[in-house]
Fold:
Amino acid sequence: MRTSRTFGGLASVLLLFFAALLLASRGCTHTMEMRSCNELFVEFPVDAAAAQANLPHGYQVTKRADGNAVLLFMVQDCEQGRLDGVLPARPLRFSHAWIEVVGPSEMGPTLPGTVRSLSTAYYYASPHQLESLPGFIALTAVGIASEHVQEISLGGIPAAARSGVVIEGRGHLGYRWTETGRPWPEPELVTGRRKFDREFGSLWKRRTKGTVECRSNFVGRSVVVLQAAPDSAVGRLHLGKTLRGDGYRVEMTDCRALIEVRSR
Structure:
């Protein structure tokens, strides 16, 4: 009897696995909605050759006027997130490290309530890091590359100086940063769009393509210094242990991401 049940359980797992492969091979698009978010995003100048080494064939880093590539670092602390309109996560805290890549020139329409639309930017993404365990399980279940971490902190409300941290595991400080800046006299509410790709997986090889569209209220600028452990998500990119860049403090009323998962 036990053997029969074990075989039945294994058969169910295999059936779900191959069903997921079939679904992903045809392409499946998921939605992630985020509301009432505080965000820090930073553009770190990094060595272009070192950044290119992280990219698969077919992707080319964007170079700035000084010849450096750009590592986009984003931390989002949202009151609520929802996957596919069904699975909620409260709160939802993300950390992202994306390398900017070359893409077509594009500027989408301005969202209602914003004053203008920014040019679309393109990135090759590291796995999304989440503090929420249900959020991590939900993203992983639908085939989106993600990592669960113990703590993500922006360091409180914006102030002249504050410190943030991502603790990736118990007793393992992944990376931390200090941020200094002041709010602008007048914030600017704009439409922002970012597109990102990622190829990953060994047994189940996948590619995700995402578009994030946000109403972003820029409230200030800051200087950010980040220090990363060598085995952290940022450290594994081999772009330096200490990074310095220009950051922006943003209050986002809402964001919507469309993420396509496809086998490759």
About this structure: The domain at 29-263 is CATH 2.40.400.10 (Acetoacetate decarboxylase-like). Confidence is low (pLDDT under 50) at residues 1-25. The CA atoms of residues 202 and 242 lie 31 Å apart. The first helix runs from residue 2 to 26.
